[in-house]
Design a protein that fits this description.
Largest sheet: 6 strands, antiparallel
CATH architecture: Sandwich
Number of helices: 6
Order of helices and strands: HEHEHEEEEEEEHHH
Number of domains: 1
Radius of gyration: 18 Å
Strand order of the largest sheet: 1-7-4-9-3-2
């Protein structure tokens, strides 16, 4: 688990450059299990690359991973990653999406974009999205490591889709995690190697922003019932700042046959 000083260093790095890399913070056995299970899901569900440049015509993506087995439940709450995300956003943050991204040989570079650019608020702004990419293989400039424009989270505009920009490759060894501000200009790299570059895109948003994947409808309620309390909160069975997300003045945790043990609604404070 990251120390307080390490957390402060990484938060400063994100404020300055828009991103940071947590090197080798994921257990090797978990990485191996994830890779094996992603191949299983791909075979069993006959998952193929998309037919658009943004998702990639030679990139295999598997969405809504929390609905695909208990193995994925440890990802959003990982003790070496979530505390940093909570510092960038706050402890009321939510799971926005959880998917895998396997860039296959011959794939072209993804168009440069910012993950929050569809949210209609002026730039620059405080982070409302904080995303992470888990390296399940080594990420190199040759095999499609995520490309970044450092400092672009402080720009007052979005990138123009299709334009070329000066970028760096976020190279990192297997088991590392790239963490970035949602306004950072970035994109997946071209894979000029002979092997897949496999990653997990574990994305978070502020508790007052709509999630990219509809967690409450996409995850069967019987599946959510087995989640830990923190994961239940992260997928949206929670209330932000005592108000946002309530159901008839109750925390939605009751839908999972559980009444919240703590936390007051805004009405209770007056």
């Amino acid at each position: 688990m990251l120390t307080e000083e390490q957390l402060r260093v990484h938060v400063r790095q994100i404020k300055q450059d828009g991103y940071t890399i947590l090197e080798r913070v994921i257990e090797p056995e978990l990485i191996d299990a994830l890779v094996a299970d992603l191949y299983r899901l791909e075979r069993e569900h006959n998952i193929k690359p998309a037919k658009n440049l943004f998702e990639g015509t030679k990139t295999v993506r598997i969405y809504n991973l929390l609905a695909h087995g208990a193995l994925y439940e440890c990802i959003p709450v990982h003790e070496n990653v979530l505390p940093l995300v909570e510092r960038v956003l706050d402890t009321g943050c939510l799971v926005s999406s959880l998917s895998s991204v396997a860039i296959c040989p011959g794939e072209r570079a993804q168009p440069v974009h910012a993950d929050d650019q569809l949210i209609p608020i002026p730039r620059p702004h405080l982070p409302v999205v904080c995303n992470t990419m888990w390296a399940l293989t080594d990420f190199t400039g040759e095999n499609g490591a995520t490309r970044l424009v450092p400092g672009s989270h402080r720009f007052d505009s979005h990138p123009v889709i299709g334009e070329q920009y000066d970028m760096i490759a976020a190279e990192m060894p297997k088991g590392s995690v790239l963490v970035w501000h949602g306004s950072l200009w970035h994109g997946g790299g071209a894979n000029r190697s002979c092997e897949r570059r496999i990653g997990i895109a574990m994305n978070y948003c502020a508790g007052f922003i709509r999630q990219q994947e509809n967690q409450q409808l996409g995850i069967p309620r019987e599946t959510a019932c087995r989640f830990s309390r923190r994961l239940r909160e992260l997928v949206g069975y929670s209330v932000y700042n005592g108000l946002i997300g309530h159901i008839e003045k109750r925390c939605p945790m009751f839908l999972l046959d559980e009444e919240p043990s703590s936390g007051r609604l805004v009405w209770d404070t007056h």
